[in-house]
Design a protein that fits this description.
29% of the residues are buried. The chain starts with a helix and ends with a helix. It has one domain. It is elongated. Helix 8 runs antiparallel to helix 9. The chain is an all-alpha fold. The protein is built from eleven helices and no strands.
């Protein structure tokens, strides 16, 4: 009975013979296909989520609106937006880890590390250009020094990136995206509260400490990226 059933299943699900197999093999025999680095990076641009580009566009529009409506306080308005710009970087980094796709991507022609670094590189360049755009707008509308304005914009951005990467590395769950959104909202609100109730921390004398904080945060962000990559490799080998 078992043999008859096995034979019946083989007959029912018998695979058809491939058509044109020899012609296909002959046509592609000895050929190797390459993709240049610039083509690879351009290709990855299309895989970045539309919501990510929408956030970047909204930040750009807010910068233009703030330059017209918040001239005296434009730097503080833009600093409150920086955490949401940081979300674009964190969310793109989180995609493969939260959905556990890095094992499959690691076995592909372009590994998870290559894909992740390419997409993060693209978003890093876009975010840096938006940061410069907001910084220049702020400098045009206020008499604040360039370094001071840069630090006040960079710190909320770096805080959000660091905390977001840390949460993703510790949890790795899909729900971490909502946690990161809450972190961005909290950092944004804290930026506004500091301006309203703790102006002593925003004086010219305190800017050197803010600059030091920005450097520490930058080092922590780089460290979190490396730790995240190491964690994905540990998942693969375990």
């Amino acid at each position: 009975m078992r043999k008859e059933m096995k034979q019946a299943l083989e007959n029912a699900f018998e695979a058809q013979k491939p058509l044109g197999k020899q012609h296909f093999l002959k046509e592609h025999k000895g050929k190797r296909y390459y993709i240049r680095m610039d083509e690879f990076i351009l290709l990855q641009t299309g895989y970045i989520r539309k919501s990510t580009w929408m956030i970047s566009t909204v930040v750009f529009l807010i910068g233009i609106a703030a330059s017209r409506l918040m001239k005296p306080e434009i730097i503080w308005g833009l600093s409150a937006v920086m955490p949401f710009l940081a979300l674009t970087l964190v969310s793109e980094w989180m995609r493969s880890i939260a959905y556990r796709m890095f094992e499959l991507e690691q076995a592909a022609r372009f590994s998870f590390k290559s894909v992740a670094l390419a997409r993060l590189g693209i978003l890093g360049v876009v975010n840096f250009l938006l940061f410069l755009f907001c910084l220049l707008l702020g400098r045009m509308q206020t008499d604040m020094k360039f370094f001071m304005a840069a630090v006040y914009l960079a710190v909320p951005y770096l805080v959000t990136v660091f905390l977001g990467l840390w949460i993703v590395r510790k949890t790795g769950f899909r729900e971490s995206e909502y946690i990161c959104l809450g972190i961005a909202a909290a950092v944004s609100a804290l930026s506004v509260l500091l301006r309203l109730s703790a102006k002593i921390l925003l004086t010219a004398e305190a800017v050197k400490w803010w600059g030091l904080l920005a450097l520490v945060l930058l080092a922590l962000v780089i460290g979190e990226f490396y730790k995240g990559l190491e964690k994905t490799e540990a998942y693969i080998w375990n």
